[in-house]
Structures are given as C-alpha cells and as structure tokens.
Amino acid sequence: MIHEKLVSLNATTDSFFPMKEEIQRILEAEAKAIRNIPVNNTIEQAVDLIYQAVHKKEGKVVASGMGKAGQIALNIATTFSSTGTPAIFLHPSDAQHGDLGVLSKNDIMLLITNSGKTREILELYELSKGLVNHIPVIVITGNPYSPLGSIADVTIHTGGPNEVCPLGLTPTTSTTAMTVIGDILVVLLMKKIGFNADDYAKRHHGGYLGIRSRNASKQTPKR
Fold it and tell me: I need a labelling partner for 87 at 20 to 30 A (CA). Which of 49, 81, 106, 151 fits?
C-alpha cells in the first residue's frame, strides 16, 4: 500500500514538473543573463587598472567577496594567478582578524557583491583604505548605484539578472554573470601581456593541462 502511494505521488509530481522544459528554461535564462552583460568601457578600464598595478608596478590583485560571490572571487584569483597575473583571495571576515596585512601599496582590489551593499565588503573597503590609502578598487555588482558601486574606481555591472532560482533568492544567474565577467578579465589580461603556452607550462605542472601546456610550449618560440 505504501509503495503504491509513493508511485502515485511520483506520478503526480512528474505530471506537474516537465523536466526537459524546465531544463531548457533554465538554460535560456542563464544564456540571456550572459548576453545581457553590458559591453561598455568599464571592463576595458578594469583591465588597464589591473595591468598598471600588477604588470607595471609589480603589485597583485586582491579579490574578495562574501558567500557565493566569495567563491567566484576565489576562482577569479586562482585563474589570474595561473595565467600570469598574480592574485590572491582575501576573505572579508579574515581580513578583520589580521589578514588585511596582505595588502601592499601597489595592489588592486577586486570586490564582488551582487547587491553592492554587503556589510562585510563595505567594511573591507573602509579598512583597506585605512591601510593603503590610494589602493584602486574594482567592483563587480548587479547594482552599480549601490554604496560600493558608487565609490569604486571602476564598477562593472553584471546586468542585474533575475535569479533563475524558483524563490528568486539563491545566487544562480547572478553568479553566472560574475563568473563570465571574471573570465573576460582573465582572457583580456592574457592577451594584453602576451601570455603563451610556455608561460602556462611554467605555472601549471600537474595533470592533463600540465602535459598539454608542456607539449604546446615546445612549439612556442622562446622570448
């Protein structure tokens, strides 16, 4: 009897939840969010700021964010580091317990917050200015008119997509846009500094990518 009720319940649930259509809807929403990322001069400005700070003044990118945005910041930082632009991730809470000392005078901050008013990131901004007064700040946000969006040196707007989450709350579509913007910054910096397979092989020794990069570097003219 219990098994029959479960089968009946599953059948009822399936009838109200067309899985393939829902998958397609989610994919279309995520793709639309990417297509709607504003293409303007802010990304170009951000690339130039990072280039000047890291590749001219020998500073580094210090990326930060809270929650899901922090995970995106960590991913961007590690990808920058593996592609020739030194970067670290600074957790905003750890920054208040001594880790802020990682900041140096030629660094640049990359702050990620969908709302643009995350308390921990606002506090990190203020604390960083107290330690390194003129440190430039780039913000990636869904709200360019927010407190952080208004005070950053460069504010990159994600387009502010609605979350595909059925509650409209869970960071989903917004983090997709953030990730793509991070990829854009990384790729543009790679092109700007002329990063090649030989450079990649020196930084990425392990795994399949390490093998591929070493094989590719053999075909790359040495500088």
Answer: 151
